[in-house]
Automatic annotation (TrEMBL):
Organism: Schizopora paradoxa
InterPro entries tied to this protein: PInositol-4-P-4/5-kinase_C_sf, PInositol-4-P-4/5-kinase_core, PInositol-4-P-5-kinase_N, PInositol-4/5-P-5/4-kinase
Keywords: ATP-binding, Kinase, Nucleotide-binding, Phosphoprotein, Transferase
Domain of life: Eukaryota
Keyword Iron: no
Gene Ontology CC: plasma membrane
Protein name: 1-phosphatidylinositol-4-phosphate 5-kinase
Biological-process GO terms, alphabetical: phosphatidylinositol phosphate biosynthetic process
Domain spans labelled PIPK: 39-443
Catalytic activity annotation: a 1,2-diacyl-sn-glycero-3-phospho-(1D-myo-inositol 4-phosphate) + ATP = a 1,2-diacyl-sn-glycero-3-phospho-(1D-myo-inositol-4,5-bisphosphate) + ADP + H(+)
Region (Disordered): 1-27, 312-371
């Protein structure tokens, strides 16, 4: 008993010390995770304020109306708002003058509330409760800037105008896919907007989900299934604060996704469906973002929310019966059949005929997200389905790059220097097949043929 009290005192002392350090860092506007708090006086404060003011007004106005079935016009809708210090019948007064455009608000409202199960009030409080965001200090490779909500649940990402046009073009297909696949691994878009300052340029941005919890992922990988230029220097990784490693690092470190028979089969089937969508809309250059967290033996129940800075996403868990098999069937085959039967949009009965699930069932399934039910991620499991001391955080990102003329020219140029089938820019169908095959070979526990495991990189 005395030893238990001593351990609790030590943990409380560490927690207070960490909170004091975080408070001091926040005063300086710098955090230890490569992000900077945007407050008044920051160079991007006006932009952030305008973004959040526009989001709060648009989401509130749309949410105040009675829900109704979507129409084709809803996918093309654009609502414009003008903000100034005086306010008007459509917008409240604001600190600065700016213009704001909200794209397809009814579509994104339905995605948020019915399929991603985001409470409107929580959404606004998380983003606009304190009018503060965390800015990632290093922008993305594409030049996009990333801003995180205060609780790190949501990301605001600036995008190029061609990306915003492409998202609008595929929005109906994206919506249908999410509706039929509530467990999709593809990035979750919660809103598409544009802000314009007086005499300034137009900035398009999306609000999306944050795959990773705060400060808890010890390894990150960005996997495309390509080999050319897909290695982060290990000597540089050893010195970097939070490096995102690539395909060749994954291979050389001997990593694999240990998901067990049942979850592995579910993950593989969902990834196949997501890849089929991306091939159908001519998208390439996307990747599977993988975060790996090691569960500490002495703090399994509190490891993700100890510091109070991370919203703990814990959807209701799906209750499943133990996998049963018929005579002559292997456990792996039974797991795959169960994956196909239970995953949306089609439930396949024993006779092999498919039956479509109802929208109510799809919405309920979204609330029990299969790939986020273990502390916001997916618990690693061995070949017998027993939990291991790791949690995976998984998502398919960067889905707004079509295989267009620019990518075709890039394919020709890089194909002159390297094997044209191993470079990143390849046609959408070839890209999707290569991507899926690479990830599939790196899933352990689904009961693949021995030779497939032998061929895995």
């Amino acid at each position: 008993m005395a030893q238990a009290h001593q351990i609790r005192r030590e943990r409380e002392s560490k927690r207070r010390h960490q909170e004091e350090q975080d408070a001091e860092a926040e005063k300086l506007g710098v955090k230890g995770d490569g992000m900077q708090v945007i407050g008044e006086g920051h160079v991007n404060y006006v932009l952030m304020y305008n973004m959040l003011s526009g989001i709060r007004t648009c989401v509130s106005r749309c949410g105040a109306k009675i829900s109704r079935p979507l129409t084709d016009d809803d996918f093309k809708a654009r609502h414009k708002f003008s903000f100034d210090i005086y306010g008007n019948e459509l917008t409240p007064s604001a600190k600065y003058d700016f213009k704001f455009k909200d794209y397809a608000p009814w579509v994104f409202r339905e995605l948020r509330e019915n399929y991603f199960c985001i409470d409107p009030a929580d959404y606004l409080v998380s983003l606009t409760g304190e009018y503060k965001l965390n800015e990632l200090l290093s922008p993305g490779k594409s030049g996009s800037f990333f801003y995180f909500s205060k609780d790190l649940r949501f990301i605001i990402k600036t995008i190029h105008h061609t990306e915003h046009k492409f998202l609008l073009r595929i929005l109906k297909e994206y919506y249908t896919h999410v509706k039929q696949n509530p467990h999709t691994l593809i990035s979750r878009f919660y809103g598409l907007h544009r802000v314009k300052l007086p005499h300034g340029r137009k900035i398009h941005f999306v609000v999306m989900n944050n795959i990773f919890p705060a400060d808890k992922v010890y390894e990150k990988f960005d996997l495309k299934g390509s080999e050319v230029g897909r290695e982060y220097p290990e000597e540089k990784a050893a010195l970097a604060l939070d490096p995102t490693l690539k395909d060749l690092n994954w291979i050389k470190r001997g990593r694999s996704l240990e998901l067990g028979p049942e979850k592995g089969a579910l993950f593989e089937e969902q990834l196949r469906r997501d890849t089929e969508l991306l091939k159908s809309v001519n998208v390439m250059d996307y990747s599977l973002l993988v975060g790996i967290y090691k569960v500490e033996q002495d703090a399994r129940d509190t490891h993700l929310n100890r510091r109070g800075t991370m919203y703990k996403f814990s959807p209701p868990q799906i209750k499943r019966k133990p996998t049963t098999t018929s005579k002559g069937s292997s456990p792996e085959a039974a797991a795959m059949r169960k994956a196909v039967r239970t995953s949306a949009p089609e439930r396949v009965d024993a006779s092999g005929s498919g039956s479509r699930i109802s929208e109510e069932d799809a919405s309920s399934a979204a609330q029990a997200d299969l790939f986020h039910e273990d502390e916001g991620g997916l618990r690693a499991r061995d070949d017998y389905g027993q939990p291991l001391e790791r949690i995976y955080y998984l998502g398919v990102i960067d889905i707004l790059t079509p295989y267009n003329t620019r990518k075709k020219l890039e394919h020709l140029w890089k194909g002159l220097q390297h094997d044209s089938h191993k470079i990143s820019p390849v046609p959408a169908v070839e890209y999707g097949n290569r991507f899926f095959d690479f990830i599939r070979r790196n899933i352990r526990g689904v009961g693949k043929v021995e030779s497939s495991n032998a061929e895995a990189p």
